[in-house]
Design brief:
mainly alpha; three-stranded mixed sheet; 22 helices; elongated
Length: 485
């Protein structure tokens, strides 16, 4: 769905009296609601809206909030206190733009939706594009969702049910079920008249799809081609094959990759029988790209689907599992140190220096792992170029190992007045940075090969390997070398 983009209210200036709420108009409501320095919602605008909510000033709210774009309303909702959000939605009534709920965290969206009667939600859903309606309904309880769907007109209910039946994070869930489709034997004139007269067509679209009587997709025509063609020309003469139709069950990340690969503005979504069931548009894909990028970043940190609006208990619950895994792995690394406790007691300098080896290895491994996970997500890394990338990372590991081995070797040698100790830590540094480079690329590749999400599991394994190898190489070399003297 290519949504109508309402301009943000421009700065209209005004006198100093007009900049006070006493006259019913706030300067912040007439200008951008964002602070130029921070990019956050202006505190003065928040205070203005908060005061209007407290006074139950529906006229001011409908004027100042109703003029905002849905994304701005979403930012405003996230900045308000929970009780203020509920009051704002209640006071705005039918003037509240429910599409703004697609712009807020899931926890905030559910909090608002759960406080509203299902009858009001059902009424609001009918005013939304189907993709926005599905986005709101999919996270609700099954019982509430069914009650809302039951109150919708038959056609709308069938469309939404069909979209909700597709897997989560699939193209079918993100598609818009409103589209323009015509038979191939229609003329350009018939098509234009149809688009002008039918009130049920989507507000914005860039393609007209061509279908047979069974709704099987035959092709598509861009709007600019229709406008430049004589009215008497048949659609089948100017249509092109839809080379990039998206299966409804395709993962949304893969669908986004298709848009990126072929510079698409929109794409047909088809079912298993190649029947047209919806359209995926660039604005939805931009949201998917942002969502997937954020998801990968969060998973690399082991925090799953955590959101800023989550409660303390929910946040703690999402972080505990991987912290527990890290604890187990930390005991494994500690057990390696325990093997060399006698050596550490004899040479205290080892206890001071060994975190350097492990820390450098961990950072180097994280660098390689981050690049690898991102390359896998964007499909830039596959079986055909993996060998070349592995060889490159080995070279990087050896080169960086040599550079930092020289530096730390010289510093440690002078620090503890022991050239042998400097040579030992330098050798251990080369070994660990080489292993870090290999672990950083091989572990994500192996996890991806066996169907696991490399963004979730890679970090803990890479860190453990670099710790274990770093400790073992440094302490093992020291035990071997000083044992020979």
């Amino acid at each position: 769905m290519l949504e109508d983009q309402h301009d943000r209210p421009g700065d209209t200036g005004g006198t100093s009296d007009e900049k006070t709420r006493g006259d019913g108009v706030a300067a912040d409501a007439a200008a951008s609601i964002y602070d130029e320095a921070t990019g956050a919602v202006r505190p003065s605008f928040l205070a203005h809206i908060g005061a209007a909510i407290a006074d139950r000033d529906t006229l001011t709210l409908r004027k100042d909030v109703g003029a905002l774009h849905e994304s701005e309303v979403g930012d405003l909702l996230e900045a308000l206190l929970p009780e203020q959000r509920h009051a704002l939605v209640d006071l705005m009534g039918k003037d509240f733009d429910f599409s703004a709920l697609t712009e807020v965290d899931e926890a905030i969206r559910l909090d608002i939706v759960e406080a509203l009667p299902n009858e009001q939600i059902a009424q609001a859903v009918q005013e939304l594009d189907s993709d926005d309606a599905v986005y709101i309904l999919e996270d609700m309880d099954q019982e509430d969702r069914e009650e809302i769907l039951a109150q919708l007109p038959f056609t709308e209910r069938i469309r939404l049910r069909r979209a909700l039946d597709y897997p989560e994070e699939s193209a079918g869930r993100r598609m818009q079920t409103e589209f323009v489709a015509v038979p191939p034997f229609w003329t350009v004139g018939q098509t234009i008249d149809y688009m002008r007269e039918d009130k049920n067509l989507p507000d914005s679209f860039s393609q007209v799809f061509v279908i047979d009587p069974t709704f099987r997709l035959l092709g598509a025509v861009d709007l600019d081609r229709i406008l430049r063609t004589q009215r008497s020309v048949r659609i089948e003469e100017i249509m092109h094959e839809t080379r990039h139709a998206i299966p409804a069950t395709m993962d949304q990340e893969d669908a986004a990759h298709e848009f990126e690969q072929y510079d698409l503005l929109s794409a047909a979504v088809v079912d298993e029988n190649d029947r047209l069931v919806g359209v995926l548009t660039i604005d939805d894909v931009v949201d998917v790209i942002q969502q997937e990028a954020e998801e990968d970043l969060m998973r690399l940190g082991g925090v799953g689907d955590e959101e800023l609006s989550d409660s303390v208990l929910a946040t703690s619950r999402s972080r505990v599992p991987w912290l527990m895994v890290n604890l187990v792995m930390a005991f494994l690394a500690a057990s390696v140190i325990g093997l060399f406790d006698a050596t550490i007691q004899e040479i205290v300098a080892l206890a001071i220096l060994m975190p350097i080896v492990a820390g450098m290895g961990g950072n180097a491994g994280s660098q390689t792992m981050t690049v690898t996970v991102r390359a896998l997500a964007t499909k830039d890394l596959d079986i055909y170029n993996a060998g070349r990338i592995i060889r490159r990372e080995i070279g990087v590991g050896l080169l960086n190992g040599a550079i930092f081995a020289t530096l730390i070797g010289i510093v440690a040698g002078f620090w503890f007045d022991s050239p042998q100790l400097g040579g030992i830590i330098a050798t251990a540094m080369v070994i660990n940075l080489l292993v870090a480079a290999l672990a950083g690329i091989l572990i994500p590749l192996l996890l991806d090969r066996f169907g696991a999400d490399p963004a979730v599991a890679s970090a803990v394994f890479v860190t453990t390997i670099t710790d274990v190898v770093g400790f073992f190489a440094f302490l093992g070399l020291a035990t071997w070398w000083f044992g020979l003297l």
